[in-house]
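name: query_chain
kind: protein
chains: 1
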Amino acid sequence: MRYKITAPKQDLFAEVILPASKSISNRALIMGAVGRSHQSIRNLAKCDDTDVLVRALTAGGNHFDVGAAGTSMRFMTAYLASKPGDWHITGSERMKHRPIAVLVDALNALGAEITYEEQEGFPPLHIRGTELKGGHIALDGGVSSQFISAILMVAPSMKEGLTLELKGNIVSVPYIRMTLGMMAEMGIQSEWKDNIIRVSPQLYKIGDYEVEADWSASSYWYEMAALSQQSGIHLPYLREVSFQGDSAVRKIFEPLGISTRFERGGITLSRSGKPVERFRYDFVGQPDLAQTLVVTCCALEIPFEFSGVQSLKIKETDRIAALKNECAKFGYLLTEPGEGRLAWNGERCAAQEEPVVATYEDHRMAMAFAPMAMVRGSVLIDQPMVVTKSYPEFWEHLKQVGFAVEEI
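structure:
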């Protein structure tokens, strides 16, 4: 399937109801499962990743297929390791090439019994679930925060609790803080001092829980505001004080001329000034925003150098390689000046006459490149339904604000 996205003829003045936060939804589900709670989660995200987790937690049997949902693979691995039983968990072909040895080794060191069913270090996994002993482990702080969050969420059920030592540079700190903050809301006390996180054996105390809107999803509307001549986009249900690290998007887009006002139970985006001539940012705390900013800067012809993007290589696809490939189709020659860095110094290459954006089974590739239609008139997106992973209504929302979205 392929979509042609054509830019609206009018300026963007609209209200858009964003999806609920996938990150918060998935954590709430796992904490509820560990706490054996039947709490009501209001405004649960309606997307592939969360749907997969709901099915895995509610279906009978001992075989689980999480498809392409990396969060579900990591969170379920830790949960099943702590749940007595004999379990098997697998995923898509891409999932079978996403490394999970760091998480498996850590859980095994804490008393789990996890083995690989095919390739060493990768799913599928065979898990003999048991009450985990717990204790002290050390992890490289540069690994995916989802590994760390997965372990933290099951830590209260460990006999000896958990002392987690994070070594080196800690990436995605906001996601770890989100996990600990939500655990605190659900009755779990923890201590994070320097590079040591401690969680003692405790019981979750979970009542009804409401999930806030997704700040990550707002980034595509920030991009559209930045690429428009004028805009007034209202996004309800986003909180100024938020567990979501991607709430930093409102600060990140300020140098690109976009202001954020908190009003009417959400935010309103508008143009506030001229963008900077060159842009630098460290995405170590918000790696999921990198694709949006790469495409925005290229579309605005703003040279950039971004750091802290090392984790992009092990996401749904190798996002660094994907960005370099797809931006080149539009004539932008991206470089990697060092480990964990991605840059564009203004150098151009021959652009394709009618580029088709490949999405690599990655929802964020589709959504980051779609607004490019605003500077090109139209853009072609291959396999556009990958957006269901996190934002199923994305194409409908584009139509609502005046984009033409047609299958060709």
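note: The longest strand covers residues 85-90.
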